[in-house]
Design a protein that fits this description.
With 226 residues, the chain is mostly helical. It is built from eight helices and no strands. The N and C termini lie far apart (64 Å). The model has no long low-confidence stretch (mean pLDDT 88).
Length: 226
């Protein structure tokens, strides 16, 4: 096989990997914020739901979650809807979203808890309801705090996409397997795959470090002015 063709196939699958990561992380952020609010709620039932979700996701391997969603859920639903099918891409996004959401939920919760309690008290003293004070005062500060951790979760989710090759998604790792099945060139193929992951993750790490330094310098600048 022409190695320029191999490289193009790997680059195309790298785009698939990137799309899976971005979509799953955006949905995971929304899910994580939802379960963060459940965790912070004073309603014990909502707390139990949050704890159950976190225990299941953090207590089971990602590969088991992928198999359960891709094979288990459709088999269950086909007893009700015989024509129900779930594509590998859809199953992969659901798996990554649920997995990332559990960790992002804890990231958001820790960020909110890190905001000085005086901020909430000051907002309440000005007459803002608790929900408005949370959305307008606490959450913006918490998001600033958790940005580095969210970027780190982005890197983790990107690497987790490789596990989804087990359900047939044509992401980078799966494409590498298919190329090897044709060329029998394991060393060259896996070297290319590894270099692509390494470059992408290195770029994300550099971006994360730069943002973290920028936030730290901004905070230090404010403290000097005060």
């Amino acid at each position: 096989m022409n190695w320029s063709v191999v490289l193009m196939r790997l680059l195309e699958s790298l785009l698939v990997t990137a799309k899976l990561t971005v979509v799953s992380l955006l949905l995971g952020a929304l899910l994580g914020m939802l379960f963060c609010f459940l965790a912070l709620s004073r309603n014990k039932v909502l707390n139990i739901i949050d704890n159950l979700y976190l225990d299941i996701i953090r207590g089971t391997p990602l590969i088991v979650q992928a198999f359960f969603i891709y094979f288990g859920i459709p088999q269950l639903l086909q007893t009700i809807i015989p024509a129900f099918r779930l594509s590998p891409d859809a199953a992969g996004i659901i798996t990554l979203t649920l997995n990332a959401g559990a960790y992002i939920s804890e990231i958001f919760r820790s960020g909110i808890m890190a905001v000085d309690k005086g901020q909430m008290e000051a907002a309440r003293s000005l007459g803002l309801p608790r929900s408005h004070a949370m959305m307008k005062v606490v959450i913006p500060q918490a998001i600033r705090i958790v940005i580095p951790a969210l970027l780190n979760q982005f890197i983790i989710t990107l690497k987790d996409t490789s596990i989804l090759s087990v359900i047939g998604i044509r992401e980078l790792t799966q494409t590498g397997k298919l190329i090897i099945a044709t060329t029998f060139e394991s060393f060259k193929t896996w070297a290319l795959v590894a270099v692509m992951y390494l470059i992408l993750i290195k770029l994300l790490s550099m971006l994360s470090n730069r943002i973290e330094r920028s936030l730290r310098n901004g905070t230090n600048g404010k403290s000097h002015k005060s």
